[in-house]
Amino acid sequence: MQMTHTLHPPGGATALIAVIGVAELHALGWSYAFLAVATGCLLMLLIAVLINNLARHRRYPLHWW
Fold it and tell me: What is the 3-state secondary structure (H, E, C) of the chain?
């Protein structure tokens, strides 16, 4: 991450929110963690695909499988 100057995804914030969140959040149990992580991953992938494919000389990802 230091070499590429990229930021770390907010994994710690997801765990912290799950612990100190409201009662409704605690009622969700593990599904909150999976839902939050899955939503974040899909959102980051969508943004990466959109931004990297704006330039004509760049294609992301090169292979889907």
Answer: CCCCCCCCCCHHHHHHHHHHCCHHHHHHCHHHHHHHHHHHHHHHHHHHHHHHCCCCCCCCCCCCC
